[in-house]
Each structure stands twice: as C-alpha cells, then as structure tokens.
Design a protein that fits this description.
42% of the residues are buried. The longest helix is centred in the C-terminal third of the chain and has 20 residues. Helix 2 packs across helix 3 and helix 4 packs parallel to helix 9. The radius of gyration is 17 Å and the shape is globular. It has one domain: Rossmann fold (3-Layer(aba) Sandwich). The two termini are 17 Å apart. The chain is an alpha/beta fold. Helix content is 53%, strand content 11%. The model has no long low-confidence stretch (mean pLDDT 94). Bound molecules: 2'-deoxycytidine-5'-monophosphate.
Length: 215
C-alpha cells in the first residue's frame, strides 16, 4: 500500500505521515527534505538559488543518507527549498529516488506536495492535509520558538505567517508539479483538530482502504 500525503507548509503532514508509517510498520519519506537538502547546499556554497543547472546537478548527486533533518528545518532552508523546487530539472533529478522509495515491496508512506499527483498517482490512499494559514503559522512559530530559533514576539509570529503565505503562493503557482489536491485525494482540514484527533482522522482514511494494522 502506498499512502500519499500532500499539503502546504506547516500543515502537519509530516507528523501524520510518520505516525501512520509507524502504525503500519511502513517506511516513510519526507520528500521536503530532498528539496531542503538541495537548498541548503546551494546556500552553504554561496550559489545563486536561481541557477537551475547547478541546483539540478546538486539534486542529481543528492544522497538521502547524507541528509540531517535537524539541520534542514530552519526558515532559510525552507525558503531556499521552495525556490529550487520550482526548477523543473531539479524535480526531474529527484523523481527516480522518490518513485523507487514509493515502489518498495510492502509499500511506503510519502509526504510532500506532488506525491498524489506526480510521484505516486496510483497510490491507494491519498490525503491532502491542510489548515488555515494563521493556524499553520502559529504551529510553525511555536516549533521554532521551542527550538530556540526565534524570539517569542508578535512580530516574529507575523514574519512566520508572511513566510508561509509566500511559500503557499510559490508552491501553488509554479508550472511544474504545483501544489494541488490530487484527483482522488481526501482533504483533511486540521485547523480545529489537535494532533491526536488529526491522526485519528487520517488513520480512519487509511483503514477504510487497508483495514486495521495487524498486530
Ligand atoms: O514540506 P517542506 O516544508 O519541508 O518542503 C519544503 C519545500 O520543498 C516546499 O516549500 C516545496 C518543496 N517541496 C516540493 O516542491 N515537493 C515536494 N514533494 C516536497 C517539498
């Protein structure tokens, strides 16, 4: 079974993907990390994010094993990821790796922006996780403050909201694999749901296809 979980920035899709994967004992891939890895390397080496050829060459040589999620969660990396993710050749370079992950015997859970549309259009379960921009900003802000990355001020929260709105706009309006609700996907709006209620709702969607996890 392939479970495709897509949604905008800070929608909670990564947490849901990990919990569903753990529940069913399936491997899980946060595909945003791939774009974040490319963005981070571009920043570290001082390359212009608009340089498609260099970004594509970095994507071509990206090794999943080298990616340290903890180094890739900051705002600057997320922003850089969104810019390089709009380059078609970068997306093409990362396609095989993602499709191979999705095609593992036994199945997999993947989360991102284009899993249900491009990476695994025949996924048995497709969920589009979303929440209002203000709620997503609030969650991301709390996470960044908790990690000590951001001051706990109203200005900082407003800046996170502005980031999220900019990213929504860029991810949804790009020509190549824009963020859209995939055909056959169920929209799960978690604006008014806590983490456990969101997980229960997502699990119900998976169980409707696969049945309960076997002990
Ligand atoms: O999910 P995230 O915030 O870690 O993703 C970072 C950026 O990577 C996001 O703004 C757009 C891009 N991305 C993408 O274009 N396609 C994916 N499947 C995953 C992420």
């Amino acid at each position: 079974m392939i479970v495709a979980i897509d949604g905008p920035a800070a929608s909670g899709k990564g947490t849901l993907a990990r919990r569903i994967a753990a529940h069913y004992g399936l491997p899980c891939l946060d595909t945003g990390l791939l774009y974040r890895g490319v963005g981070r390397i571009m920043l570290d080496r001082g390359f212009d994010l608009a340089n498609v050829a260099i970004a594509a060459a970095i994507a071509e040589n990206l090794d999943l094993a080298d990616l340290d999620p903890d180094r890739l969660r900051d705002r600057a990396t997320g922003e850089a990821a969104s810019v390089v993710a709009a380059h078609g050749p970068v997306r093409s370079a990362l396609l095989d790796l993602q499709r191979a992950f999705a095609g593992q015997p036994g199945g997999a859970v993947l989360d991102g922006r284009d899993i249900g549309t491009v990476i695994a259009p025949s996924a048995e379960v497709k969920i589009f996780v979303t929440a209002s921009p203000a709620e997503r900003a609030r969650r991301r802000f709390r996470e960044l403050v908790g990690r000590g990355d951001l001051a706990d001020t109203a200005e900082a929260e407003a800046a996170v909201l502005a980031d999220i709105q900019k990213r929504d706009e860029r991810d949804s309006s790009r020509a190549d694999a824009p963020l859209v609700v995939a055909p056959g996907a169920t929209v799960l709006d978690t604006t008014d749901l806590g983490p456990d209620a969101a997980f229960a709702a997502a699990l119900a969607l998976v169980e409707a296809v696969r049945g309960p996890a076997r002990p």
